[in-house]
Amino acid sequence: MKRKICVVTATRAEYGAMRCLLEEIDNDPDLILQLIVTGTHLSPEFGYTLKEIEADGYHINKKIEMLLSSDSAIGVSKSMGLAQISFAEAYDELNPDLVVVIGDRYELIPIVSAANIARIPVAHISGGELTEGAIDEIFRHAVTKLSHIHFTSIQEYADRVVRMGEHPSRVYTVGEPGLDNIKRIKLLSKTELEGLLGIKFKQKNLLITYHPETCESLEAIRNSFADILKALVECKDTQLIFTKSNADVGGREINKMIDEFVALNGDRAAVFTSLGQLKYLSVLQFVDAVVGNSSSGIVEVPSFKVATINIGGRQKGRIRAASTLDVEPYYLELKNVFETIYEPTFKNNLRNVINPYEQPETCKKIKDIIKALNFSQLKIKSFYDF
Which segments of the chain does DSSP mark as H helices, in order? Predict the structure, then answer.
């Protein structure tokens, strides 16, 4: 009997990271892919990225609305409650053999909780990582304890999952699945990108994605981003390409500030709600650095031999490639680091950068492991006292 593997995606980043895994599962004759799309994928405000999934040709089994119009703490908590109810109903209808999730978003807590209550085992990708500047840090570790099988990107992260009481036989170090996209997707040329995005690359080019540090107050988030914009406006002969923030508390405030900045600097700044996987990866070929605090700057960008200017503490604790420059969100520090990335020595060293998250055929490894699992035994879980 074919096994039903239910993959859940709530954000553009999650889908990008699991795109090749979906392909592996969908193409395997012994597996049935079930796909649940939720969260910001269904929100026009955040780019309605559902259309990208549909354009890739995947059948979507369930579209679950859970994102409320408010990004306040109350709004987020209510969204989580709505997700718990909706996913319980979806699992009852789809009856999957395994639920697959990735990352550390708050949406995952009700998603995996509902699976556990329904006695459906959960596979968690990207456990054991640290992001100490975001409240997502605690959600990631909570999802680890609510999961039955673990796919980590680096051995150090696998070791951390084991120290949390997960049995070593259930923890696999496979690399970062999103990096498979770089090898499989035919990226766009500079001319094609300029036509699609309506921009002209300049002598210097920066891609900026900044999310709220959710451990900070709204005022602190606003002040930090104001300093970032102050430093960016002084980058001469530079095309600034912004992608908007996510649905975290404070995200709408950042997006408003981006819109205001681009309106005043339209000759050298452009903003996109979401570039989508193909355009985003294609842009990485032609920028001098990725600026902000997105996990992509830590995980994906080093594979392009491009600098990452990682701002603040959102990604604190993650292992970094040598191409990553850490800086606090202060004007003078930012101004200096924008000069550093153009220094000849630094640029030459980028050629030798090794991405610690990269392994061959990560998604195929995950799929093959899933195929070999005994799901009945997987449901029985005990704390491992190493």
Answer: 12-26, 50-55, 73-94, 108-117, 136-145, 155-163, 180-184, 190-197, 218-232, 251-264, 276-283, 295-299, 331-340, 344-349, 362-372, 375-378
User: Residue 68 and residue 369: Cα distance in Å, rounded?
Assistant: 36
- Helix (H) / strand (E) containing 306: none
Dig out the tokens for 124 from the structure: 């968690």
Boundaries of every domain in the chain: 3-175+359-378, 188-352
Tokens of 326: 């850490």
Provide the angle, in degrees to the nearest 10, between the axes of the packed helices 362-372 and 12-26: 60
Say if residues 127 and 147 touch (Cβ distance below 8 Å). Answer: yes
Q: Which CATH architecture has domain 188-352?
A: 3-Layer(aba) Sandwich (3.40)
Residue range 138-150, pLDDT digits in tens: 999 999 999 999 9
The two counts, helices (H) then strands (E), for the chain are 16, 13
Predicted TM-score (pTM) of the model is 0.86
- pLDDT digits over 373-386, tens only? 998 888 889 999 97
Reply yes or no on whether the pLDDT at 251 is more than 90.
no
pLDDT tens digit sequence for 319-341: 999 999 999 999 999 999 999 99
Measured distance between the N- and C-terminal CA atoms of the chain, rounded to whole angstroms? 36
Query: Cα–Cα distance between 319 and 304 in angstroms, integer?
Result: 17
Which H helix or E strand runs over 327? Answer: strand 324-327
Fold: same for 3-175+359-378 and 188-352: yes
CATH 3.40.50.300 fits 3-175+359-378, yes or no: no
Q: State the CB neighbour count (10 A cutoff) for residue 371.
A: 14
Distance CA 270, CA 8 (A): 31
Only one residue has tokens 């999103």, namely 178
Q: Are 357 and 181 in contact (CB under 8 A)?
A: no
Question: CB 1: neighbour CB atoms within 10 A?
Answer: 6
Looking at residue 150, its amino acid is H
Contact partners, residue 250, CB within 8 Å, separation at least 6: 71, 212, 214, 216, 218, 221, 222
DSSP codes joined into one string, 240-251: EEEE---SSTTH
Q: Report the phi/psi class of residue 164: left, alpha or beta, with left for phi > 0 and alpha for psi in -120 to 50.
A: alpha
